[in-house]
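Reply to thread "Modeling small-molecule complexes from scratch"

Following up on the discussion above, here's a worked example others can learn from. I took a protein sequence and the SMILES for flavin mononucleotide and predicted the complex. Inputs first:
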Amino acid sequence: MSIATSTHPTVDAEAAQTRGQIHLGVFFQGVNFSTVWNAAESGSQTEFESFRRLIQTAERGLFSAFFLGEGLRLREHLGAIHALDVVGRPDAGIQLAALAAVTHRIGLVATQNTTFHEPTALAHRLGTLDLLSEGRAAWNIVTTDNAWTGENFRRGGYLDHADRYTHAEYVVNTVKALWDSYPADAPADSPDAAAWSAPGTAESVVTADRYTSVAAVSRVPRSAQEHPVLFQAGDSPEGRDFAARNADVIFSTHSAFEAATDFAADIRHRTEAAGRPADDLKIFPGQEFILADTEAEARDKARWVRESQVTPQTALAFLEQTWGRSLGEFDPEGPLPDIPSVAEQTSETRGTGFHGHRAAEQIASWRALSEEKGLSIRQLVIHLTSGRGFVGSYSGVADELLRYAEAGVVDGFNVTPYLVPSGLDDIVNGLIPELQERGIYPTEYRGETLREHLGLRRPLTRRHLA
Ligand SMILES: Cc1cc2nc3c(=O)[nH]c(=O)nc-3n(C[C@H](O)[C@H](O)[C@H](O)COP(=O)(O)O)c2cc1C
């Protein structure tokens, strides 16, 4: 497979050509039980070699982007670090800078929080990554949904939901203003200090909200793609509107066809209401792919994946979040615990965002389900956690993706691999050629930058300069 370089075509013309294409990104979330870490082929959670192999496979398959999640505090379960999660959350900016050196075209997406990071630090870190990677950086904007994470910071628990998005908007606007400190024709990459400091070259950014103030000029010049691409992950109505006003790509959880169709209609409506063309905000749901030559083999593989993901220990820990107490005395292969929960709300594994349901109601519905289907604790957890994902033959899944491409309800998927670092091999070797045959997957990297490859228009703040 050749990875072509090309000249810089007009980005608006490219935007039209991307319709009906499915891009792929890879999301390394960091904390989850969807990655199987104890299989023979599993790699390390922190060693560079794991990430190098994963990202180079993705680039061989012309993936658009490599995403890293962010966790600003390790999760805890029943008072201890959650042993089932990945322990080790390398800094995304540093990790992606290292990966920039071993890749050429793939986008590098750092999830970074607006509630706790300062705008000048964000502008500098992401702007630096964009320069080092020659226009391949992106920022996945998140706000983080729990005060518990905030205890790791001087500000403590900090902001409620509404304030988080108001502050996020301030942070994003400030970061963009910093990136735009230098006019489009400024000799920002000139080694000549006089050119940099000439009067009128750089505009000082002076902003403040209730929590932060800034008086600064960007410490790095604009990159080959003007500034990093903006992704956003947050699903509330406020989060969706925030994305419609600010982001280039929304990272969603709505991957099933019906849900993706409804989500696309909702996002297009919000994007237009924000004064942008409806297709201006690209949609990338997260998705798992379990593939084989035949449907039957894929189903067998899926069984292995589910049983490896949901170990007996994982199954108990999953239920403990709802029961609010240790369930160590119960057999994971036996029936649901016959005791009530001690928690009113389901939130025992701190930092998961898995909360907000009333525990008693949750338990009652699980009991009914497990009785109806005759499920053990572990079988119930497998049932509850295995709804998502494409499971099938290469050609069958390619046909399914064709349906999405024809309906135009997604622009891509963020693959969450169940194995690291080998989890993309099947996709790259078996699925992508099928997608290319159907004309719905790129056959080369387009342009030099992530913005060009995704067919995005100019950054919102700079369009009037076109
Ligand atoms: C697909 C997806 C991925 C996310 N990844 C992260 C992450 O890596 N780190 C993080 O702190 N929050 C992450 N979040 C959570 C967001 O920070 C946000 O706090 C949460 O979704 C609540 O916002 P909302 O009420 O608008 O949905 C993610 C959310 C979504 C939907």
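What I'd highlight from this example: Residues 295-385 form one domain. The two ends are 35 Å apart (CA to CA). Questions welcome below.
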